[in-house]
Amino acid sequence: MTDPRRTGSVRQLALSIYAGSAVGLLTGPLIARALGPAPRGELAAIVSYFECLLALVSLGVPEAIGFHAARAPLERPRLVGAARRYSVRLVPAALLVAWVTVAGPLASLPGPARLGTIVLLSLLPFGVWGACFEQLLRAEGALRPLAEVRFLPFLIHGVAVCALWAVSELSLKTLIAVRLVAVIAPAIWARTRTRDVGGPAVPLRPLVEFGAKAQLGRLAALANVRLDQLLMLPILGAEPLGLYAVGVVVAGLPVGVGEALSTRAFGEVGRAAPEKQGATTSALLRRSMILQIVACAGLMSVAPWLMPLLFGHRFDGALLPALILIPGFAAFGWGLVATSAALALGRPDVMMYSHGAGLCVTLLLLPVLLPIYGIAGAAGVSSASYVTFAATAGVLLRRGGIGEMRPGMGDLRSLVLSLRALAPIPGGRRAR
Question: Domain tally for the chain?
């Protein structure tokens, strides 16, 4: 029998994500005020390159491991072995990528920051290893350990930033060092919380073949989220990027709802009986839409007075892109639930095509609007790409046989009751 203390609930996972967001709201202003717009932009560039390269080198293997673990639990020890083997094989490539990136796009970084960035990028295999165990926890439906893993880097970041600020040592160099710890510690904790003992590895080729399909979508997603920041540094400079990065931090808060429900969707849809998977998916999508609408409306109402209070007048220019991005990020959060459910249904193509559609919008409009309208243009393009991503995912699932996705009052009542009871979201017919 599954331990309910280990299974947890979507509310616990959501609380861990929003606790992390709260830490970000606390430390974000400290970092912004200590660094200023230009160094804040350099930090955003480093983080963007790390996340994009992490997705690139993983080739979707963590997602493939999670999918096979949900479908064949008895294979979990061998999947643990596959995670170890794949991560070890990535080490030489990661070292090469680190040197090339710092010598090329990030060559303008100051000396100590460049060295720290090389070390950070050299940890890419470690990040892939940790992502594999996160997916194993996700496939198991162990939301409480997963919540711990998700919150740990925020906790490390929050404690370290506050301590460094207190002693006036908050700088680009020290923040890179904090990032190093925030990569290593969650990976180790994810492995500790996974109960499986490693065994002989399953063949890597089928994992890569499956993961590559979903990974194309993930790379497109990262391009949608990060391409604007990657292009902004050479086109506009570090200071506008710093303003834009602050706007993204604030506007991205609704995505936490989508991340929490996407984890629930992957586990519940994957474990549901085949004849109930469609109803479970449509119920989750309707409830997710309600939550995203509420989060979007609330954030847009408080952002105009909250941002100047937290970040100071040097970052007044971040408000406009934040307001433009908030609706787009709300749509993106809903799309995360849709693509996660599709992945559990064995349809990684939904993720690939949905993110691909959003990426087309980004690639067509960003080079045109970014030089003309600056960070406001980048925000408009990003928001449009997120809406395109979510709409495409909904259309593909609808054509695949998923039922009604538009929420009604019955869904609102059912959602409130589910959250109050800390119960799994029911996947039956739409309440009336």
Answer: 1
How many CB atoms neighbour CB 186 within 10 A?
Answer: 24
Average pLDDT of the residues in 223-251: 84
- What is the C-alpha separation between 127 and 145, in angstroms, rounded? 17
pTM: 0.73
Domain membership flag for residue 432: no
Residue that has been written with the tokens 């492995």 in this structure: 191
363 falls within a domain: yes
In a domain, 429, yes or no: no
Tokens of 272: 């549901």
The answer to whether residue 270 sits within a structural domain is: yes
pLDDT in tens, 107-150: 877 777 888 889 999 999 999 998 888 888 887 777 778 888 88
pLDDT in tens, 352-376: 788 889 889 999 999 999 999 999 9
Q: For residue 100, what are the domain limits?
A: 4-421
